[in-house]
Every structure is written in C-alpha cells, then in structure tokens.
Amino acid sequence: MCGIAGLILKQGATPDAALVQRLIAAMAHRGPDGVGQHLAGQVALGHNRLAIIDLATGDQPLFSGPATLVGNGEVYNYRELRAENQLACATGSDCEPPLHLFRRDGLAFADQLRGMYALAIHDRATRQVVLTRDPFGIKPLYLAETRDGIAFASEAQALIAAGLVAPRIRPEARAELLQLQFTTGAETIFEGITRLLPGETVAVSEGRVLERRRRAALPEGGPIATTEAEALAAFDAAFQSSVELHQRSDVPYGLFLSGGTDSAAVLAMMARLNDSPVRAFTAGFDVPSSQKGGAADERERAAALARAVGARHESITVTEAEVWRHLPEIVAAMDDPVADYAIIPTWFLARRARQEVKVVLSGEGGDELLGGYGRYRAAMRPWWLGGKAPRSRGAFDRLDVLRAPLTGWRDGIAAAEAAAARPGRTRLMAAQALDVADWLPHDLLLKLDRCLMAHAVEGRTPFLDSAVAAACFRLPDALKLRHGAGKWLLREWLARHLPAAEPHRPKQGFTVPVGAWIAARGETLGPLVAAQPGVAEIARPDRVIALFKAAAGKREGFAAWHLLFYALWHRRHVEGVMPEGDVFEVLR
C-alpha cells in the first residue's frame, strides 16, 4: 500500500521535478517509509512507500530494461507468478513480477494479477506509460488532463494540492453525493479529474490516451447448476486460497471484526491458517440501541467470536466527544467524498490498529458477492409485488430543504443498471453486479482506503478476489437467498466452521448513531452548517436549521448528516481550510 503519482507530457514539454515533489508530498500519509522518483524525457513518476513486503529491497521505482514501475497496493500471487513464468527478479517485491510480465505480454500483463493494485509503467522503448487498476477497484487512481498533458495520482486532492486542477464542483456529482452518499462512474465531483475505472488498463503517450482495455471483476453468464455440498466445497477452497494470499506480509497483520457474518468468516479462516492468535479489533459506540437514534453494539458478540477461536481481541468505544473533536480530519481524509457514516468507526479503528499492526483484513465484499443486502430481495420482486430498483429514493426526497430539486442524481446508477443486466443474469445477479460496479469501489472501498491510509495502515479484502468471485457469483439464487435471508451459502459455511457466529440469526444492519449525536447538538450545529458557503449555495438556511432541530427522526438525521459531511468536506477541499479544531471551531 503506497501512493503513486506522475506526469505524461506532450512532445516538447519537460516534467518539473518540483511539481512531482508536490504531488508526492500531498500523499505523504500513504507512504511514510520512503520516497522515490523517476524522470525520463516527457515522463515523471513518483512514489510514497508503505513497506509491507520485501522491506529490504522493495523500494520503488522498480526497473527492468527500458521499463520502470511504481505501484500502490499488493499483488498477492507474486510468488506464483515468479515460479510459473520463470521470472528472474532482482528483488522480493510483489510489484516486480508485473513489470517483467508487461515486458513480455504488453497490455495483457494485468490479466494474471491477483490482488489490489494501481500500477504505472513507463516503457521508454515505446515512449508510453501504461496505467492499470485492479478489477474490483480496491486501489484508487485519478487522472487529470492539463495544458501540458496528463497527470495521475492515488488521491484526487494531490492533483489539486500540486496546482494542476482547481477545486471546482460538478453539480451532477454533488447531487449524487447528497442523495446517494457517493458518486458514480468515471467522473469525480471535481471538474477535470476522472477515475481510472476498476479493471481498466490504458496506454498513454505524449499526453493523450492511445488505447483502453477492461478486465471484468465478475464472471460472465447466468447461474450454474450445483448442489449445496459442491458449492460449499468450492467456496471453502477459494476462500482459503484467498485468505492465505491476503495474509502474505513481512509486517504484523490483524482483522477488523464486527459481529456480522463476513468478518466472522474471515476470522474463522484466519484462525484455521495461523498458528498464533489472530489480532482482532472491534468498535462500539456510547449511544445504546435502546436510546432513540442509537446503534446496535456488537462488541460482546465479536468478543465471543474471538474467544471461540482464541483470538487476541480489543474493543474500542467511539464517543460523541471524540467524534466532534476528530470529525473534521476524518472528513478531510475523504477527498473523493463518501458521506458514509461508517467512515467514523473505520478511522478510529485504523488509528488504534496502527499501534500494533500495519495490515488489516476486513469483510468488505461478502454482501455483494453472496447476496446479503435486503435491497436484493426487493430487486428480485416484480413491481406489482412491491419490488423496486436499488437506490430509487434519495436522502433529500420530500424534505423541502434544498433551494431546487436535485435533478439527474440517479442517471449514473441507471446507466450502471443497464450495464449490469447482461444476458443470462437473474435479477439478483444484476443487482449484485450493480453494487460491484459503483457502490463497492466508490463507497465502501474508498472509505477503507482513505480512513486506513490516513494512519498508514493497509486494508485487505479477501472476499474481493477472482477465485472467490468465480466460486460465488454464478451460484443459483437459492444458494444466496433462502427463507428470506441473504448469504445462505456463507451462513451454512459458518454453521460448520464457526457455529459461535450464530449465522442463521437475522441480519443486523450496521449503524452509527450520527442521528443521536446530531440531535443532541442540533440547536448549535444547524446555524453553523446553514451558514457554510457550500451549503448556503444549495440549501435554504431556515430549512437547514429546522432539519437539524428535527435530527432525532431517522430520515431527518440521515439528511442532516449528509449536510454536515458536505459542509466539512467543502470547507477543506474547496475552500482550502485546514481541519484545525473540532467541528464547531472549523465551522465558525
């Protein structure tokens, strides 16, 4: 896990070393263990290193003949790539095999990679730079077209901090953020900054894109007939392989453990594969579920799971006072904005975990691959039986807070829906594919990347692996949803391998008590948020103040949280105000 950046300029232009340094400096939190640069002709590459594998010789850039590589993330099957392809590597770095494969296979080199990555390779022989991103979009990469060519970086804010792009808001993306809590597709919320899409590989020369190709995260085709026993065996083999690969590290690693089935499954497999106790970390809140706006506390359940496998477990309590103190810096970490309240516990967990480990495994992706969300059941029903499309309602619908209706906010989701509904796929598979295309990379994985990287911790997601996707996605619907419950196959697997997880109990959605916290300070927060330039531009101040007074209500609390997030985000990433002080000081 690192940060990468670079410039690919038009003919006659020369990279400015100071500009590359500004790009790297803006992402110092991503890689405190080393800095590297490569300048050759019209190309410059930069790298911030977080040392995880090959601590001694894995510094980047890496070189092979006329090719130079910088990378962010991990290629987990690097040992197999070396052996199967008889590669003569000079280092033990997981990123060196891709460099040799590129020299042999060209743009197809990424097809063999199993991992999370964003890579940049400069081929001086062809005068091209090749950029590639893993199929699930676990690791980010952003592009900006400038007067002199193309710039790229692991974080959008680096492109702005370096002076390459001005922080101008795209209204369409702002509407998505307010209504959905994330933004969709290749376009970001900033004018002039785009995302390299998950699985995309592009060849760039002299400041322009020459070629694009895309590697799919999910297998094509409809359900494949199989028995439950066969499906369980296939999942067990694929999941064991994935967790084993995701544990490859030359530094200590641990697990984010909730009381849910996904992280419980990762815990069970880690316990199977490790001789020493698994380090596990859980977060809870100071607002009990019995209080209005409170959150279910799964720390006791997580502790019971940890005891069942002999894990070393620690729980932390996220308090209201800590949230108000640190929320400005938490939001500041989300330069590509995600108004998902789960950023709060994720940030605090990463801060605590960093005291013991540099790598953390988590359960993201289990719901998407195995059909865990309640919205999937609604998507499977026809409309006359109460079925509805995922995310058909926005957070501000019917609240009369904004100056004008948010039009077009669902256009990106609609386009992704059309792309997900491929021949042979069931309604359930199409809904899963929709989430894998947008919700997963542009919400859950962005949250994980930014909150962990803020503390120089690497996050790994063993469900999001090609072998696991092959074992799960094309299962018959009945092995995903049964008796009104999702993730049937995973629940059955857990019943055999970690019965303490009580896998067939009803799914309990993860919540953070932002509504209760906001309601307690609504009288103060409402006027502060209403007065912020970013909010005043889109919302009526009197209605914002009324919304915060009513934040004890579920819908009102959710919308108030979105506005609070946006106010803090706009303050940092558009107005350029550093997050010094607590929420109330930053908003004054």
Structure description:
The protein is α+β, with helices and mostly antiparallel strands. It has three domains: 2-214, Aminohydrolase, N-terminal nucleophile (Ntn) domain (Glutamine Phosphoribosylpyrophosphate, subunit 1, domain 1, 4-Layer Sandwich); 228-398 and 408-501, Rossmann fold, CATH 3.40.50.620; 514-587, no CATH class. Helices cover 39% and strands 17% of the residues. It has a six-stranded antiparallel sheet. It has a six-stranded antiparallel sheet with strand order 4-5-6-7-11-12. A hairpin with a 2-residue loop joins strand 11 (200-205) and strand 12 (208-214). Helix 9 (320-332) packs across helix 21 (554-573), helix 12 packs antiparallel against helix 14 and helix 18 runs antiparallel to helix 20 (541-549). The mean pLDDT is 95.
| CA-CA gap between termini | 36 Å
The CATH topology of the largest domain, please? Answer: Rossmann fold
Q: Which percent range fits the helix content?
A: 25-40%
Strand arrangement within the widest β-sheet reads 2-3-1-9-8-10
Radius of gyration: 23 Å
Any idea of the CATH class of the largest domain?
Answer: Alpha Beta
Kindly estimate the percentage of residues that lie in beta strands according to DSSP. 15-25%
| Mean pLDDT over the full residue set | 95
Based on CA inertia axes, which overall geometry fits? globular
Quaternary: single chain
Number of strands: 17
Tally of distinct domains = 3
CATH superfamily of the largest domain: HUPs
Q: Counting H and I runs of at least 4 residues, what is the number of helices?
A: 22
Regions with pLDDT < 50 over 5+ consecutive residues? none
Structural class: alpha+beta
Largest β sheet strand count, sense and barrel closure: 6 strands, antiparallel
CATH architecture of the largest domain: 3-Layer(aba) Sandwich
